[in-house]
Amino acid sequence: MNQLKNIAFIGNSLPRRCGIATFTTDLQQAVSKSPAHVATAIVAMTDHGQIYDYPPEVRLTIADNNRHDYIHAADVLNAGNFDVACLQHEFGIFGGEDGDYIIALLSRLKMPIITTLHTVLAEPSLGQRRVLNELVDLSAKVVVMAEKGRTLLSEVYHVPAGKIEVVPHGIPDMPFSEPAVAKADLGFDGRSVILTFGLLSPNKGIEVMIDAMPLILENRPDAVYVILGATHPNLVRDQGEAYRESLVTRVNDLGVEDSVVFLDRFVDKATLLNLISMCDVYATPYLNEAQMTSGTLAYSFGLGKAVVSTPYWHAQELLADGRGVLVPFGDATAIGREIASLLTDDTRRDPMRRRAYQNSRPMTWQKTAERYLALFLQVAFQNPARQPAAPTNVVMRKAPTLPEPKLGYFMSMCDDTGLFQHAVYSVPDRAHGYCVDDNARALLLSVALNEPGERLLPDALTARFASFVQHAWNPDEKHFRNFMGFDRRWLEDKGSQDSHGRTLWALGECARGDASPSRRTWAAALFAQALPTVEGFGSPRAWAFALLGLDGYCAASPQDMLAQQIRSTLADRLVDIFHRVGKIGWSWFEESLSYDNARLSQALIATGLSAERPDYVAAGLKSLRWLMTIQTNPEGLFRPIGTDGFTDRTGEVKVFDQQPLEATATIAACHAAWRVSHDITWKKEAAKAFAWFLGSNDLSLPVVDLEKGSCRDGLHPTRLNENRGGESVVCYLLGLVEFRKLSRASGHPSTLAPLRALTA
Predict the structure, then answer these.
(1) Which one-letter DSSP state was computed for residue 137?
(2) What is the spatial distance between Cα 427 and Cα 476, in angstroms, rounded to a whole number?
(3) Nearest C-alpha neighbor of 637 from the set 29, 6, 51
(4) H/E/C letters for each residue in 39-98?
(5) Can you tell me whether residue 429 is helix, strand or coil?
(6) How does DSSP classify residue 596?
(7) Do residues 258 and 159 make contact, with C-beta atoms less than 8 angstroms apart?
(8) Cβ pair 278, 109 in contact under 8 A
(9) How far is it, in rounded angstroms, from Cα 104 to Cα 109?
(10) Whole-model pTM?
C-alpha cells in the first residue's frame, strides 16, 4: 500500500509575524500530528534584513531577495527524497519581479508540488498573471480556500477544473463556550466586548469601527472595542507608527477613549484563543471586496462568535445563511446598528453563534490535515512506478544571510577630533561634543574589523580614535577624562570609573589585535600606565570592562605579572559579590540590574577561560543563564532591561527604554559562553539578541537602517527614538561583527577538563 513518508512545506513560518507564517506552521503541525505519521519539514522564507529563532521544524531558510538561496533549496529538497512539496503562495513574500524567484525553486524540484494560493487577484498585472500561470503549470494541484477562488482561477486564469481544490482555512478545535470566563480572566468582566485582531493596516477598516462606537455606546454603554495586533511590519518599516497614532487620535476626537482598547502586540496562540473566547461580537470591517482568505475570520467563526463583517469574498461565503451579518463597505452607521442589535438581543446573537460553531466543525485543523494528506497521496502516487521516499536527515538548516557592516553613517558621525557623542536624528550634534566612552568603543570596532572576512577602517580614522584616547589620559590624576566640548576643551579632570574601565578595555584589545604594530605597542604602554588605578574602584562594571581589557593585554604582554595579579583581584571581587548578593531567584552581582549587564558575565567567562579558572567560568555562565531569562519577553523575543529606572529584586523589570548596547553586550557574552561550552543554545540566544536590532522586539520595529548602517538610540514605549548617536551606531556595528564571527565559528569546547565538567 502506498504510504507518504516525507512532506516539505514552503512558506513563511513562526515566529515571523504574519498570517502566512501562522498558516504554514499550523498546517505543518496538523499534518505531523495526524495518524498518518508523516515526517514534515518547513522551508522558511526570511524577509530582508530579518533573523528569526526558528523552531526545529524549520530545516532550511531562504533569504527572500537572494535567488541563489532558492536554487540551493531546490537542490537540498531533491536530496531529501520528499514525496511532495506544499507551497504557500502570497504575492509579496518572495523575491524577484512579482515574486518570480520562487519559480527558480519550483522548476528544479523532482517531486510533485501542491500550491495553496492565499490570494487570487481578479485583475492581475501582466507580471502577476505570468507568475501565477507558471505556478499553476508547475503544480500538480492548486488549493484555494473559497469557491470564489475556484471561479477566478477558472474564468481569469483558465485553470482546468480538475486541477483546483477548495480546502477551507483550518481552525483550532475548541469547545463551544460562553465569554464570561475569559472576560474575567482578561479583566473585561461586566463589559460587552467587540473584537478585531490581526496585523494593523489601513485596508482593515478599523476607522469605520471606531466611527461606529458612539452609536453602539448609545445602545450599550458597557461596550468596549478591543483592537488586538501589532502594526504590519511593512507599514512600520515605511511609515513608523503613524497609522496607529492616527487611530488613537480618532478615538480621542470622538471621545470614546474609555471604550476602545489597543492591544499592540503579536500574541501566542493560547492567548489569542482566550481573547477571541471573551468577545461577544467579532468585527471584520475590511474595506476591499478582494479578500480571498481571512484567518482571523475563520478563527472567530470556528470559536462560535457572532461575526459582523463587510462583504469581502471570504465573508460572503462563510457568513451566508444566517451564520453572520454582512454590512456595506465603509458604512459606520450600518456596522454600528448591527453590532448594537446583537449586543442587546441575546435571542438573535446566541443562535447565530451556534450556527457558526456547528458549520465550522469540518474546518478544524485535523480535518484540514486529512484533506491535504488525501491530496498529497493522490499526486505522490499517481505514477504507479514511483517508489515512496525513504526517511532522511539530509535537510539541514541553512544559516540566515547576515548583513554586511555598512560604515558610511558611522564615518559621517566622525570629524577630525573623533566620534561625535550625539545626533539630532541623523545629523551630528556638535552641542554635546565628544566622550572617551564612544571613542574607546570606536577603537574597539576598529580592532574588531581587523578580523578575517571584515573590511578594515581607514587607518587615519583608527589613528584619530587612538589619539582621542591618548589625549583623554590625565597623568596627574592617573585617570582618563571623559567629556570634551566641541571646542576641544575637556569638561572635567577625570571621568567616571566605568569610562576608565571601558577605555582600558579598548586599549587591551588594541594591544592584542590592532593592524598596526606601532599602535599595538602604544596601546600596551598606555594600558600599563592606567591599569593600577582600577584597583581603587568600587564599580563592578568598571572591574568587568577592565577584565575584558586584561584579556587582550595579558595575551599581548604575558610577562606582566602585575597585570595578572590585578586580573585575579578584579575577578575574585566579581565572584565574591556574586555569591554574596545572589540568592534563589536572583543570580546576579548586584541588588539591581542597570546597563551593559551581560558584560559582567562575559568578563568572568573570558577571564576564566584565559586564566584557567573554572570557578570564574561557572559564575559567569550561571549569571548569564539567569540574565537571559530576565531578558526574554513572553513571546520569546529578546527584551533588554529598560533604562526607565532599571530594576531591583523587589520590583518589576523595567521594559523601556531599550538601548542597543544591551543587545551588543548580550551577543558578546553569548559568544564567550559558546567558546567554553559549544552549546548551540548560546548561538540561538545571540541570534535573538541580534534580531532585536532588526525588528524582533517588543514594538516589532527595526532599530537599524541596514542600507545606511545607522542605528536608532533605542525603543520608547510606543515608538523609536529616532536620534542616531555615536554610542548606538558603534554598538550596532560591534554587535554585528561579533555575531558574524560567532556565526562562522566552529570547533570543540575547551580542553580544560574542569571547564568541560562545569559547562556540561
Answers:
(1) H
(2) 36
(3) 51
(4) EEEEEEEECCCCCCCCCCCEEEEEECCCHHHHHHHHHHHHHCCCCEEEEEECCCCCCCHH
(5) strand
(6) S
(7) no
(8) no
(9) 9
(10) 0.52
Q: Are 278 and 225 in contact, with CB atoms under 8 Å apart?
A: no
Assigned C-alpha cell, 333: 452607521
Hey, what amino acid is at 760?
A
| Amino acid letter, 431 | A
User: What letter represents residue 572's amino acid?
Assistant: D
Grid coordinates given for 415? 570629524
Secondary structure element (H or E) that encloses residue 757, with its range? helix 753-759
Cell numbers placing 656: 523601556
| C-alpha cell recorded at residue 258 | 474609555
By CB atoms closer than 10 A (0-12, 13-18, 19+), residue 150 is middle
Alpha carbon 469 to chain centroid, angstroms: 36
Q: Cell numbers 526558528 correspond to what residue?
A: 54
Tell me the β-bridge partners of 166.
144
- What is the SS3 assignment for 323? coil
- Residue 513 identity: G
- Look up residue 329 and give its three cell numbers: 463597505
Question: What type of residue is 240?
Answer: G
> Closest Cα partner for 709 from 728, 692, 695?
728
Mean pLDDT per 10-residue section of the chain, whose length is 760 residues = 84 91 96 93 91 91 92 93 95 92 94 95 89 93 94 92 94 92 92 93 92 97 94 82 94 96 85 93 92 88 95 92 94 97 95 94 94 93 44 35 87 96 94 96 95 87 97 96 96 95 97 93 97 96 97 94 96 94 82 91 95 92 93 88 68 82 96 90 93 90 91 91 95 95 65 35
Q: How far apart are CA 549 and CA 275, in angstroms?
A: 51
As a whole number of angstroms, the distance between CA 481 and CA 465 comes to: 14
Closest CA to 19 of 232, 218, 211, 204: 232
Sequence-distant (6+) residues with CB within 8 A of 723 are 422, 423, 424, 425, 712, 713
Nearest-angstrom CA–CA distance, 238 and 233: 9
- Residues sharing a CB contact under 8 Å with residue 456, sequence separation 6 or more, in sequence order: 446, 449, 450, 515
The CB density around residue 258, as the number of other CB atoms within 10 Å, is 9
> What pLDDT does 649 receive?
60
Residues in the chain: 760
Residue at 287: amino acid letter: L
Residue 187 Ramachandran class (φ > 0 left, ψ -120 to 50 alpha, else beta): left
The Cα–Cα gap between 100 and 132 comes to 9
Inter-residue contact 97 to 127 (CB < 8 Å): yes
